[in-house]
Amino acid sequence: MKSLTVPFIQLPLALTMLLYLPAHAQTVEVVGTGATFPAKVYVQWAADYAKKTGQPLTYKPAGSSAGVKGITERTVDFGATDVPLSQAELDKRGLFQFPTLVGGIVPFVNLPGIAAGELRLDAVTLARIWAGDITRWNDSAVRALNPGLTLPNLPIQRVVRSDGSGTTTVFVEYLRTAAPSQAAAIVPDGGRARWPGETIGADGSSKLVAAVKATPGAIGYASSDYSIRDNLSGVALLNRRGEYVQPTLPAFKAAIVAGALFKNQLEPTSLLNVDGVGVWPIVTATYVLVSREPESLERASRTLNFFYQSFLLGDRAVAGTGFAPLPIATQARIVRLLTTFKTPSGQTVPVMGASSGESMVAMQR
């Protein structure tokens, strides 16, 4: 995989803006909250950051709605959301938004005798299942897509997020985009959804995964890191090129390329159901929200430095997580922007490093 060495060497402005970390600086615990979609990555980043710098950082996964609420009310140092805010909303709340990671959302099942990736579904059939139109796994529509499988005569149990979740928002948006007629009965509801018929609700991704695993015939949806770490039985999805694709890192990267994600700017770009070879059809970026004019210079410095250090590691920061890193040029643009923040009094918020020498060594690894 490519490193960030060349792009950052070519950006002296970003390098020269790094300041020394004062030896007398007090320990400040930075707190973030929000999206569960990238939670495992942020928690790992926080642990790595604390080990490297000695500065504690806590991330509390509570759903995208909680992330937006927390940073809007300034009860946390940063919020995280899978559903980007519009420029009008950012202006209203006094926030700045930048992307951090790209990952997939994976429908997965608990079907006895069916291995991970064996079950094939297209957008229309998947939408009919989630709309409650298809109620048993041996339905003729499912069998038509899986002629080589012996599908059990089990009722389909839909397990959904009961909390406000960006994962739910993105998943429902995919269904309504890729199969609008079949998914019309599924109504988005502010981070939740109104699902036709009876469903099993779960608060958070971990509980949703546990509920699916405990329920034969169940189907759920979760971010790609859960799919990898919990050995979930993900389905193969038909993409717009007519290919059945597995939820893998190359398939997420293919969506980034096909969707020209952040190619020329940082405005949110949809990666749902994009047309390209090898593309997983349910891919999304996830975002961080910070105050445009933070009141605490120290807390803002720690917050920005946390993300600076994470971007500095490039591909290594997300290796093995189930997520794809942002394009290198995008990471470089974000680093430049992280050096432009000022407090209400006009003080520049420093993106602090242990020392300029140590920063250069880290970039060259």
In short:
The protein folds into two domains: 5-102 and 283-364, D-Maltodextrin-Binding Protein, domain 2 (3-Layer(aba) Sandwich), CATH 3.40.190; 104-258, 3-Layer(aba) Sandwich (D-Maltodextrin-Binding Protein, domain 2), CATH 3.40.190.
Mean of residue pLDDT values: 85
Number of strands: 17
In the CATH scheme, the class of the largest domain would be Alpha Beta
- What percentage of the residues does DSSP assign to strands (E)? 15-25%
Number of domains: 2
**What's the main sheet like?**
10 strands, mixed
Structural class: alpha/beta
CATH topology of the largest domain: D-Maltodextrin-Binding Protein, domain 2
The CATH architecture assignment of the largest domain turns out to be 3-Layer(aba) Sandwich
Q: List segments where confidence is low: pLDDT < 50 over at least 5 consecutive residues.
A: 1-25, 353-365
The CATH homologous superfamily of the largest domain:
Periplasmic binding protein-like II
Helix fraction? Answer: 25-40%
Overall, the morphology is elongated
Report, as a whole number of angstroms, the end-to-end distance: 13 Å
Helix tally equals 14
Oligomeric state, counting identical vs distinct chains? single chain
Radius of gyration: 21 Å
